[in-house]
Amino acid sequence: MDAAGIGSTDSITPLAYHRRTRHLLQRYAAGPAMLDWDGQPDPFRRYGSSRTLPLPLQAAQWPTTCAELHQDLPARPMTLDAMALVLECSLGLAAWKSYGSQRWALRCHPSSGNLHPTEGYVVVHGMAGLPDGVHHYRPDTHSLEQRCGLAGWAGMAPTPRLLLGFSSIFWREAWKYGERAFRYCALDMGHVLASVSYAAALVGWRVHPLWSWGDEEVAALLGLDQPWGDAEPEWPEVLLDVRANQAMDAAPLPDDVLARARAASWHGQANRLDPDPCYRWPVIEAVAQATARPSGMMPAGQASSAVLAPQPALPGGTMRAAGLILQRRSAQRFDPEGSMTQQALHDLLGLLAPQLARPPWSLWTLPPRVHLVLFVHRVDGLAPGLYALPRSPHGYALMRQTMDERFVWHPCVGLSQDGWTSYLLQQGDAREVAGLICCHQAIAAHGCVALAMLAELEPLVQQEPWQYRLLHWEAGLLGQVLYLGAEGLGLRGTGIGCFFDEALAELLGLADQGMQSLYHFTVGHPLPDQRIATQPPYAHLQRR
Ligand SMILES: Cc1cc2nc3c(=O)[nH]c(=O)nc-3n(C[C@H](O)[C@H](O)[C@H](O)COP(=O)(O)O)c2cc1C
User: Fold this and answer.
1) Measuring from atom 20 of ligand 1, which residue has the nearest CA?
2) Within-domain flag for 279
3) Closest ligand 1 atom to 111 CA
4) How far, in Å, CA of 414 to CA of 234, rounded?
5) Which of 1, 124, 144, 527 could form a disulfide with 135 if both were Cys (CB 3.0 to 4.6 A apart)?
C-alpha cells in the first residue's frame, strides 16, 4: 500500500484508477499542492530542425453553412488546401486572449484547463505540394513539420491517401490536475475527434478510426516510439482514415507500411515543455499501459450503419460553419436569470442521437454507451428537476436498474426524440445540487440546463480495459456536439471535468461502478468578461 492506502501504481486497472481519481466532497483527487503559474508547460510542441511547410489559412472565407454541414456535400478533391482547412478548423487556433500582461491562445476544440494535451499528425501519400510521409501539425504557426519521408507508403493508390494520427502529452494536463489528468486527456481526445469530423464535413470528407491499429502500431507509424531525449513523451491515441470518396472504404493499407516507418529516418528533436517539473504522477503511465489498445481489436458491437431517424441540422442555418467553429468558446459565467425554450433544448439533445450519416456520428459507429442525466433549471414549459435521456434501449434498462428506485420515470414528450424517450426523474429546483456536484462551480447552477454523462463502465471495462478510453472519447464527442449546438442556438456551453463523483453517485443512487459519470456540461446565456481582450488567431503570421 502507498501513503494514500490505495495500492501500488506499478500496475492498476482502469476501474481502480477511476475510483482512485474520484473527487470527494472532503478531498480532491491527488494533485499538486501548489502551482507555479510562471512555470507552465509550453503549450506548443515543436520538432526543431525539421523541415516546415506553412499551410494556407482559409477558415475566414470558407462558405459552407451550418445547414450544409448536415447535407451530403459533394466531396472536394483531396488537395493540400482542403486538408489545411480541415486542420485549421479542428486543431488550429481560434483566437488569442489577453488580460494585463498575460496572453494565451484558444483553439477550435476546447481543452480542460486550456492545456491541450492532444497532438496531431498527418500521414500522407500522393498529395501535390506535400512530400509523402509523416508530418506533425503545429497549431501556433498553422504549419507542418516533416518527421519522416515515406516514399510511396500507400503502395499503388491512384489517388492521394491521407491519415490523421493523434497522441497525448499527459504531462500537459498532469502538471495542473495531477492523477485525474488521464481522464481529461481522454475527454479532450473525444473533443478532437468530433472537431475533426465536423471540419472534414466542411469539404465533404469523412473520417473513420482505424480501430484495428493497436497503440504500438500507431506509435510506430507516427514515430512516437523514437527516443524522446529529455522531452515529455507522447502516447499514441488513434489513427483516422480520411475519405473524400466512399469507394476508398475498402482500400487497405499495404502490409509493409509499418516496416517502412520503423526503418525510416526521423527528423527533428521534440522540445521539452516543462524544464522543471515539480511532481510526478506515475499512476497516469500505469493506467495508460493498462488501457493500451491491442492490435487487431475491433470495439465490440458495431452499430448498424442504418440511419436511425430524420437528421436534425446543426443550428445556425445559413451561418458559415467555419465561423461557428471559430467562435465556439466556453462560457465562464452565465446570466442566472436566462432561460431557453423547450424546443431549443429538444433540438440540442437531438444532435446527440447517433445518426450515422452525419458528423460526428459518421466517425463513431459504435453503440451509444454514454447516457445523460439532465439538471433542468430554466427551460420554458418544462418543470425544473432531474431528467434522464438514455441514448439506447440498453442504456434505459441499465439506468433503471442502477439508479434510485424512487425516481418516477415519466416520459417527457417535449424532450423526446424520434427514436428515444426522455424521462422526468424527479421534479424540483436542482440548481444548488448541480453547482455543488460540479465542484461548487456556479456555471452548473446558472446555466439553463446542466447535465451529467453516465457511462456503462462495468462490466465493459473489466472485459476490455481499453474501452475506458473510448468511453471518455464518446463523452468528449458529446461535449463537442453540445458546444457547437449551443453556439448555433445563440447560447453557450462549458464542459465540466471537475465534479464530485461520489456526490453525483449518491444523488442518483448509483450503487456501484456499473454506471459512472465521466463528464458534465452546462448550457446557458453567457456573460462576457469585458476585462479580457480578443485578438484574431493568426494575425502574428501575416499570411493569408
Ligand atoms: C474535458 C474538459 C473539462 C473541462 N472542465 C472545465 C471545468 O470543470 N470548469 C470550467 O470552467 N471549464 C472547464 N472546461 C473548459 C475549458 O476550461 C476551456 O475549454 C478552455 O479554457 C479553453 O477555452 P475555450 O473552450 O473557450 O476555447 C473543460 C473543458 C474540457 C474539454
Assistant:
1) 114
2) yes
3) 31
4) 45
5) 144
* Shortest-distance atom of ligand 1 to CA 191: 31
Residues 138 and 228 placed together within one structural domain of the fold: yes
Three cell numbers, residue 501: 463523483
Name the closest-CA residue to atom 29, ligand 1.
Answer: 112
In the prediction, which pLDDT does 2 show? 37
DSSP assignment string, 272-337: PS-SS-----HHHHHHHHHTPPPTTPPPSSPPP-S--SPPPPPTTTTSBHHHHHHH--B-S-B-TT
Name the residue with the closest Cα to ligand 1, atom 11.
Answer: 332
Q: Is 154 left (phi over 0), alpha (psi -120 to 50) or beta?
A: alpha
Contact 352, 360 (CB under 8 A): no
pLDDT at 347 over 50: yes
pTM: 0.96
Q: How far is the CA of 373 from the centre of ligand 1 (A)?
A: 20
268 neighbors 99 (Cβ within 8 angstroms): no
Q: What is the pLDDT of residues 426-442, one digit of tens each?
A: 999 999 999 999 999 99
Number of Cβ within a 10 Å radius of residue 457: 22
Strands 340-341 and 379-380: parallel
Secondary structure of residue 539 in the 3-state scheme: helix
Indicate whether 113 belongs to any domain.
Answer: yes
What is the whole-number distance in angstroms between the Cα of residue 355 and the centre of ligand 1? 26
Q: Classify residue 353: in a domain, yes or no.
A: yes
Ligand 1 interacting residues, C-beta cut-off 6 A:
106, 110-114, 184, 187-188, 191, 329-330, 441, 443, 494-498
Higher pLDDT, 543 or 333: 333
For ligand 1, atom 28, the nearest C-alpha belongs to 112
The rounded distance, in Å, linking the Cα atoms of 425 and 493 is 23
Looking at the fold, whether 238 and 374 belong to one and the same domain comes out as no
Q: How many domains does the chain have?
A: 2
Query: How far apart (Å, rounded) are the C-alpha atoms in residues 270 and 50?
Result: 10
Residue 173: CATH number of its domain: 3.40.109.10
CA of 246 to the centre of ligand 1 (A): 35
Question: Could you give the CA distance from residue 351 to residue 419 in angstroms, rounded to a whole number?
Answer: 13
Ligand 1 centroid from CA 494, angstroms: 6
Distance 124 CA to ligand 1 centre (A): 32
Q: Tell me the CA distances in angstroms from 153 to 101, 125, 228, 255, one per residue in order.
A: 47, 7, 24, 10
Of 109, 176, 453, 496, best ligand 1 pocket probe by most atoms within 8 Å of the beta carbon: 496
Q: What is the pLDDT of residue 174?
A: 97
User: Contact 374/507 with Cβ under 8 angstroms?
Assistant: no
Query: Residue 427: left if φ>0, alpha if ψ -120 to 50, beta else—which one?
Result: beta
Residue of higher predicted confidence among 332 and 355: 332
Cα separation, 373 vs 313, in Å, equals 23
Q: Which of 60, 83, 200 is nearest to 137 (CA)?
A: 83
Reply yes or no on whether the pLDDT at 250 is more than 80.
Answer: no
Nearest residue by C-alpha to atom 26 in ligand 1: 329
Atom number of ligand 1 nearest to Cα 187 = 1
